[in-house]
Amino acid sequence: MGPVATMKGAHAMHLRAILAMIIAGASPAAYGQGQGLAVAGPVDPVHGFPQFYRDKAGRSLQPCLDIDAPGDPCGIADFRRIVFPATFPGRFVYWRATTRIRGLGGNTSNRADLAIALEGAFAPPGGVADGKQIVVARWRIRAPRGLLALATYTVTHPFGVKTVVADATGAIDVADEQGCTDAPPACDFKRVLTATDIGPFLTWDSARPSPPPGFIGDPDIEHTVTGSPLGTNVFRIDGPNAGGPNRNSIETNLFTVTGKISAGEH
Length: 266
Hints:
The protein is mainly beta. The chain contains 1 helix and 16 strands.
């Protein structure tokens, strides 16, 4: 993030660099079966990013930069008035969902994390600067330990299914970025619409509590979600001893979700 705003806790788990992928096949078709997005809104003349992104279910989300909302539902710390470029964050989200499986391999200290997001950022090197605006759909699956070395696992998530192979230490670390990853030339903000397998945006479902008014979730509260085009509103790992000895499946249906509804939808 820039000098003013920093993402809290698990929301900092995205790395800017594209990490080495160990997805079987490594072809675009292997990434997932989500719908992609429908519309990139007009560019905001103040900060140079699209005013919203709309998914194919008709949900529009604007940059989550609200530092005044009670409870910090944008997950931004170090509150100050945001002014471009002086105090504008180096990274922000239009939408993000994260989740954690606990007890991977039958050990309560082991976990697997999934993070999927649509983010605005600035191309390196340097920080916040006009002409360097980019929008990237990012996802990452990370399990530092707990799986069988070199074993093959199937990961089911809301936007598809991935086949991954644990490394020699029993770890998985798989990531990808889709959309604009560099500038100049100036980012074509529409590129991400068809480049990504994200879509539609996951939101909290109708179970209590309800999200803060004007938002689709809260990054500090785990909650069941809706929106998977495949009906798989879960994060699941299937494969040898994934849940412990002779337990070859483990999953969670609890996610943290960040997203601010576009002003035109209130």
